[in-house]
Amino acid sequence: MRFIEEIVVDEFLPTFRSMLAEELRERGLTQNEVADVLGISQSAVSKYVHGDVSRNERLLTDERVVELVEEIADGLASGDMRPVQGLVEAEVLVRRLEDGDVLAKLHEDAVPELADHEATISVHDPDNELRSAERVLTALRRGLRKIETTSGFAGLIPNVGSNLVACLPGAAGVDDVAGVPGRIFDVKGRATIPGDPEFGVSEHVASVLLAARNGGSDARAAVNLRYDPEIVEALAAAGYDAVEFDADAEVDDAVGDAVDATPEPTVLYQTGGFGVEPIVYVLGEDVEAVVEAIRTLV
């Protein structure tokens, strides 16, 4: 009696780890850094990199395995992805490969009697909350790195500071929206990001994004910029639908009415109110779309 988990340990794990160790070394990480990221010893890394482990040819050449190894290696090497997301993504792939796929076939090879049965085992949900949250955080890190190095972005930051936010697919409140703790500020002409993105740290921009979604928008990300008629005009000229909302009204009502008035607006703005700084909000289907909009302005 041999369990499929044994196939994972004996066939998938050494193959996957050795591929990932090789890719990380090619991206400039030292053996010590690779060992820390993978949670293994330096001697194990050395064995993986030098081919001193048995690797399964079917897994070694599987396009999905190859693509995931490269994606995780890119993310870990750049710092955009935390090891926990790499683990979650690998776990999801393992579950998929176990479910009537290559790992199931390898299991059948090891236990031929299984081939007589057509039933498969339901395994982990690939759309679980942890995976979704880690993907949101990874997208934000990438977006923040891009705007941090975008010349001229600092000039778009309002006095209250900017925030780049993104939400979970079924976001119901600010705790489901991730952003920069403390916001992004202009410090001597440079956009300064005080910390790694977290969930539940953006009350203001998150509220606008949630209000837009409650009004029917499919937006999953947003950023706030300083208001200037020329900024609104530039975004409109670039093809983004812009609509104004009332700064003195409740956010849910004002933003909801604005979204209802213009099908899928990507730019919302208010020109100020009593004690309220005028602000432009750029919405997008994802962080990448919002960053692309920002780059049309600089």
Task: Write the CATH fold name of the largest domain.
Answer: L-fuculose-1-phosphate Aldolase
Q: How many helical stretches?
A: 12
Structural class: alpha+beta
Instruction: Name the helix and strand elements from N-terminus to C-terminus, one letter apiece.
Output: HHHHHHHHEEEEEHEHEHEEH
Number of strands: 9
Helix content: 40-55%
**Parts with pLDDT < 50 across at least 5 consecutive residues:** 117-124
The CATH homologous superfamily of the largest domain is termed Class II aldolase/adducin N-terminal domain
Share of residues in strands? 5-15%
Name the CATH class of the largest domain: Alpha Beta
Oligomer: single chain
Descriptors:
298 residues; 2 domains; alpha+beta; two-stranded antiparallel ribbon; single chain; 12 helices; seven-stranded mixed beta sheet; 48% helix; L-fuculose-1-phosphate Aldolase
Describe what this molecule looks like in 3D.
It is a single chain. The protein is an alpha+beta fold. The protein has 2 domains: 4-117, no CATH class; 132-295, Class II aldolase/adducin N-terminal domain (L-fuculose-1-phosphate Aldolase, 3-Layer(aba) Sandwich). It has helices at residues 4-26, 31-38, 42-49, 57-60, 63-78, 83-98, 102-110, 129-148, 204-214, 229-237, 251-261, 287-295; strands at residues 164-167, 177-179, 185-187, 190-192, 198-199, 221-226, 242-244, 267-270, 279-284. Strand 7, helix 11 and strand 8 form a beta-alpha-beta unit.
